[in-house]
Structure formats: structure tokens, C-alpha cells
Specification:
The chain is an alpha/beta fold. The chain has helices at 3-24, 75-89, 103-113, 127-132, 162-171; strands at residues 65-70, 93-99, 119-123, 139-143, 149-154. Helix content is 36%, strand content 16%. Helix 2 (75-89) crosses helix 5.
């Protein structure tokens, strides 16, 4: 066996090990709990067709808002659409941010699932998601009427979660 026939597989194996180590030994993101009590990051979102724009001002409008991070290609996002609709029926304001999605696909998702967000936008380059230190989608962030993050739910919202999430959101609603 020639030296080049030995060196090439060994070098390739070593390169794969180094790449694997680099991906697994990254600095972990701080826990979501670190975001609670802090302001929701500034928004600079592209428009989401058929949905009014989500802005910093709308998150400081005096009432709590659930901000749902989703994508058209995300299966759990599609599954949680009915739960988000139930939260809207319960009187909770729900906004949506499409992450790493194409505008046409995100708009089609909103139409197909009946996701009637009160406001939303596109985060195609994950800037808002990175600022939140979000680890994936779906995620839903409760923002109080002053723009402060009060709770975070990772993963899809199940129908059994709706009553609890509505109660938590309503606990931050202004007294009537």
C-alpha cells in the first residue's frame, strides 16, 4: 500500500473529527431564563404578506402579546396552529415571526393554517432569533405591555397548554 493511500483516509478522518468537535464544543447559549425580565430585542423585520407589521411600539402598547417564532417548513409549527387560534379566541394577542423562511412560503403557511396574527414579520437571517438566544422553533415568548419578556415556551403549544398559557398572559394584562 502506498503512503498516499494511507494518508488520505487518515487526513479525512481527522478533518471530520475536528469539524465534529467544533460543532459540539461551542459556547452554550445562556438559558432562556436569563431573558426573562429583560426587554424584547429591537425589531427590524421584513413584512409578512397579509399581516400588519410587528414593531417595538406594538409590544409596548399596554397589553401582553405572545410572540410566536415559526416557519412554514416546521412540522410542530403547523401542529400548534390550532392552539394559537384557541389562545386568540381566549382574548390573547398573538403575533408571529417567520424565521429562516421565504416570504411566499410564510404567507402560504399563514393562509393555510388560519394563523391570524395581529402583527408579524419575517426574520430570514435569524437576527431576532439570535438576539433572543432562541434555540429553535417553534418558540413562544410572552411580552408584557411594557415590552418586557415574562415567559417563554419552547416547542409546540399543545391544546392542553392553552388554558395555562392564557392564565399566565392574563396575569400581565392591565386591570380593567
Amino acid at each position: 500500500m502506498t503512503p498516499s493511500r494511507i494518508v488520505a483516509p487518515v487526513a479525512l478522518s481527522l478533518a471530520l473529527v475536528l469539524v465534529s468537535v467544533r460543532w459540539t464544543v461551542r459556547t452554550p447559549a445562556p438559558p432562556v431564563a436569563a431573558a426573562i425580565g429583560h426587554g424584547f430585542p429591537a425589531l427590524a423585520l421584513a413584512p409578512l404578506a397579509g399581516v400588519p407589521p410587528l414593531s417595538d411600539a406594538s409590544l409596548r402598547a399596554g397589553h401582553p402579546t405572545l410572540v410566536n417564532l415559526f416557519a412554514s417548513w416546521c412540522v410542530p409549527c403547523r401542529a400548534e396552529a390550532a392552539s394559537l387560534a384557541a389562545l386568540r379566541v381566549a382574548g390573547i394577542t398573538v403575533a408571529g415571526i417567520a424565521v429562516r423562511d421565504r416570504p411566499d412560503d410564510a404567507a402560504a403557511f399563514v393562509r393555510a393554517t388560519g394563523a391570524r396574527f395581529v402583527a408579524g414579520g419575517l426574520d430570514p437571517h435569524e437576527r431576532v432569533q439570535a438576539a433572543l438566544r432562541s434555540r429553535g422553533i417553534p418558540e413562544t415568548w410572552l411580552v408584557d405591555g411594557d415590552g418586557v419578556v415574562r415567559a417563554v415556551w419552547r416547542g409546540g403549544i399543545a391544546p392542553t397548554d392553552v388554558a395555562h398559557i392564557a392564565a399566565v398572559a392574563n396575569s400581565f394584562a392591565p386591570a380593567r
